[in-house]
């Protein structure tokens, strides 16, 4: 799994997103929401039917994955293929690094805009708000033109989602699903 486009196959997208969101969890309420989401994924009951082609619509994951197994410095022990587990951690780590660089430049304002927009609308519009905010930030420039833009967009997206969920943990599950749909739509472009 060398590219982000490889990440978009099967449940890997959800695992990378979950790994990204889990890192450096500061709030106990946010941590509880992440654990709950991980348990739901573990029970194979929350993967909704995505018509985007990347997820199996029956919610089947190839193996049991526990949120407690998803840490930046620990392999995803629940995956059968250790190379794939390591690749998921590596991608999430690279995206977190880019997200850290973005944080200094633009994330605070973009998080505030996204949070305000999603709180003022219904969940079916959240993907549009996320798309518009990521595109606005990318148009204005983030100062990371030396990095692959696909990764910058992905890191920006996940960083914004994480910051909104840290502020309002109750949005995690719906925003997680919205993020997966958004990533799948990016892949389709």
Automatic annotation (TrEMBL):
Pfam families on file: BID
Q: Which GO terms describe its biological process?
A: apoptotic mitochondrial changes; positive regulation of extrinsic apoptotic signaling pathway; positive regulation of intrinsic apoptotic signaling pathway; positive regulation of release of cytochrome c from mitochondria
Extract one GO cellular component term from the record: cytosol
Q: Which gene does this sequence derive from?
A: bida
Which organism is this entry from?
Answer: Parambassis ranga (Indian glassy fish)
Instruction: Give the UniProt keywords, A-Z.
Output: Apoptosis, Cytoplasm, Membrane, Mitochondrion, Mitochondrion outer membrane
Does the record's keyword annotation contain Mitochondrion?
yes
Descriptive protein name: BH3-interacting domain death agonist
Question: In which broad location class does this protein mainly occur, judging by the first location in its UniProt entry?
Answer: cytoplasm
- Gene3D superfamilies hit by this protein: Blc2-like
In terms of domain of life, where is this protein from?
Eukaryota
Is Membrane found in the keyword set? yes
| Residue stretches spanning the membrane | none
Subcellular localization? Cytoplasm; Mitochondrion outer membrane
